Amino acid sequence: MRKMNGRKYSKSILAGKLGAVLMLLLCYGITPAQDLENITKQKPFEIHGVAAASVGYYLTTPTFGNTRKPYTYSIMAAPTVSIYGVQIPFNFTFTEGSKNVTNPFAQFGINPYYKWAKLYAGWSNMSWSPTTLNGKTFLGIGVELNPSLFRFGAMYGRFNPAVKEDTINNSTTPQYKRRGFAFKLGVGNTNNYFDFIFLKAKDVQSSIPKVKDALNFPPQENAVFGFISYQSFLKQKLTWQLDGAASAITRDLNSQLVDIGTGTGTKFLKVVIPPRLSTSYAWTAHTNLAYKAAKYTLSADYNRIQPEYQSMGVDYLLNDQQRIALTQSFNLDTNKVILSFLENYQHDDLNNRKAVRTHRTNFTANVALNLNQKFGMVISFSNFAMFQQKGLKELSDTTKLSQIQNLILVTPRYTIIGKKTVQNVFLAVSYQRVDDLNKFTSKYVNNNTVNTNLGYMISVNKIQFTVSPSFNVLYSKTSLLSLLTMGPSLGLAKSFWKGKINVNTTTGFVAGRQNSVWNSKTITNNITVNYNIDSHHALKVSNSIMRTFFLLSDTYEYKGDLTYTYSF
Q1: What is the pLDDT of residues 514-536, one digit of tens each?
Q2: Which residue ranges make up each domain of the chain?
Q3: Deepest of 4, 218, 394, 564, by most Cβ within 10 A of its Cβ?
């Protein structure tokens, strides 16, 4: 057998290691991205993780109808195996009522990359633009290539698993298996680029038996064309983002096909997504212009998402919305004074088909003062307004929404840092007012709320001891009733044995009054003890008590647990 030279031998070793990683890639898959360029520097095999055992108790007033067991136990292990830097997580959990072994291969993904190439395999998610493909988890394969100014991406996989209908207990919602693919083609780099995006997804009708309620659970199909552009100027001080998309969605694949002729454009449309009676078309557009200087930042944002717009590459998207937002931030006197403002306006009913159109506005102003190391303060004011106007129907005066909410928050703080102690005095005062401009509903909605919390904390460095008393008052008043809650609390924290043992406890008392009657008193206590035996072993004991006394009865709740943790 001919002896290989050193260079070929090194390549064969690297190929073997890559082969091992690719075997994992093909069989399993979501872990952090793996840099294949540095794979030779990774350990061949490594295992680490945590294991824990816990016992606990729970007692409460019998009249609560509690279904929790009075005593519980659990055993948990979460080891992670690493093979050349590819991490494979496991999770085992055993409790008194169930046994669960989480198969890591059920949702495992790998994202190896080498210079400008990145691969996605197994369970992965990719994000290309906010309204086309954005964080949707899929089981399949994907790739992103960005050599020089060329930008390319592609993916194929299963978006949703098949879920059969439970015709006996109706405990599960039927769901078709959904497969999809997408590709991205663009030009540019991280600071300046333009991408074109296409996504297609479709339910597999044969993946589950015929659904009884086919009207509410039909198979669907979706095609999306989109683009995203990001440009920066003036050494990235000025940035401009523009993105948009057009979507065609068929909400029932069993609905009748529509004859749209035989023209060039119609032939293309028939291939992409054959038009049916349940097919609808919608679009979205978004742009953001921002300028960031040394002492101030300005931005303007516009977003419009048409009614019925949907992309199967995005888990959640609120459509039928048009929003304009402006933000400003000013840094004065070297961070001693920071001013920030937000103005926002949005409304729905973009196609003028709703019975009612709803408008929302928001204005927020914040002032952060950091005059010196000792004193600081934040002052915030927010105004929220919501009102309705008629759409297809006339509005009823008795149900018309027209509300204004104002919120003022003031939080001063004072800190004294000494050689032996650190002291903090803080105050948080908030005032919220809700005004209903509808005279028919105002007496039920108008509300004034004041919340005040005064606190003090002192930490003694040498003995690692902290004391933090506080007092809280909450008062809320409507035209029908007034509510008042108030009471003190005391927190204590102490470390022993050079930080190996940490004890924290908090005790509180709250008295409640409704109108002129003091109708409740609540006492709470929480204590936690953490003992870090060494770098591998730790114990934790926690217990909490809550006792409430009402005029005619009282309730209690006691709970606690003991946990041992081993890290390896």
Answers
A1: 999 999 999 999 999 999 999 99
A2: 116-314
A3: 218
